[in-house]
Amino acid sequence: MKRFALGFLFIFVVAGFTVFLAQGSSNELQKPKMFAGEKLVYDGKLTWKLRLTFSVAELTFIAANEPNTDNLIVKADAVSKGTLLSIARYSFLQQITSTIDPNNFHILKTTKRDVQKERVRESEAIFNYKDKRVTYVETDPKDKMRAPRRIASEITDLTQDMVSAIYYLRMQQLAIGKRFEIQVSDSGLVYKVPVVVTAREQQKSSLGKLWCWRIEPEIFGIGRLIERKGKMIIWMTDDERHVPVRSQIKSEYGKIDIKLKSYSKT
């Protein structure tokens, strides 16, 4: 496997609920503070080309109010487990923390820790809306002598990171046929992603059998977030919470299916 590929796909599939940033007007948005105290846990399974299916990852999203500020903090973790870890001996841990200004839903800062077997990278992205710029710095904590990797890109007020966009989408009004073009910043780069709501379908989940919006983002292809062949689908509940209950992605590695394991709100 190429560096980052599988671990990235997992954090993306449910951080995959990331790429559906709807460019709606402010009067369409629900209050972002409704997410504080929420915890979402997902189980990721991989169906290999030989049609073998096994658990490979657990993903967790926790949203909370930042102490002494109005900011919303969202922490997203993807941890390898099961057959991938015990047989393939491939391990990964991806931890992303996003700091969001709930007044205008601007992503302010993204910190990331990315562990792929022995390889470790730590990074921070700072979003400056006055200068319309995101500045990304990546370091290797195992090699203090290695020069930091720095990238800067132009952004707009609608730019989100791979986690904050999940929650931005959840605040939008959705309907069959609705189309969006979104901007997602990852590792200092900014991508445009076409998205369409293609259907309203029932899905079995840990919350019960619910009507859901079926959302299809174009994340694969040249110049896209993932420069490979593939397809991605997201199912999000048709209620005011818009909880992502399932995501499916087909790629060269087979089919990845991520389903909601538990939902809680304090």
Can you walk through the features of this model?
- With 266 residues, the chain is mainly beta.
- The protein is built from 3 helices and 15 strands.
- It has helices spanning 5-14, 82-86, 164-170, and strands at 38-47, 53-65, 72-80, 92-101, 106-116, 119-128, 133-139, 149-154, 160-161, 179-186, 189-205, 208-217, 231-237, 244-251, 254-265.
- Mean pLDDT is 84; it is low at 1-29.
Question: Topology, please?
Answer:
Layout: H1 5-14, E1 38-47, E2 53-65, E3 72-80, H2 82-86, E4 92-101, E5 106-116, E6 119-128, E7 133-139, E8 149-154, E9 160-161, H3 164-170, E10 179-186, E11 189-205, E12 208-217, E13 231-237, E14 244-251, E15 254-265
Parallel strand pairs: 9-10
Antiparallel strand pairs: 1-2, 1-15, 2-3, 3-4, 4-5, 5-6, 6-7, 7-8, 10-11, 11-12, 12-13, 13-14, 14-15
State the separation between the terminal residues, measured CA to CA: 40 Å
Given the structure, what is the number of helices? 3
Shape: globular
Radius of gyration: 18 Å
Strand order of the largest sheet: 8-7-6-5-4-3-2-1-15-14-13-12-11-10-9
Assembly status: single chain
The secondary-structure class comes to mainly beta
Order of helices and strands: HEEEHEEEEEEHEEEEEE
Instruction: Give me the count of strands.
Output: 15
Overview features:
3 helices, 8% helix, 266 residues, disordered N terminus, 15 strands, 53% strand, mainly beta, 15-stranded mixed sheet, single chain
Task: Provide a short characterization of the protein structure.
The chain has 266 residues and is mainly beta. Helix content is 8%, strand content 53%.
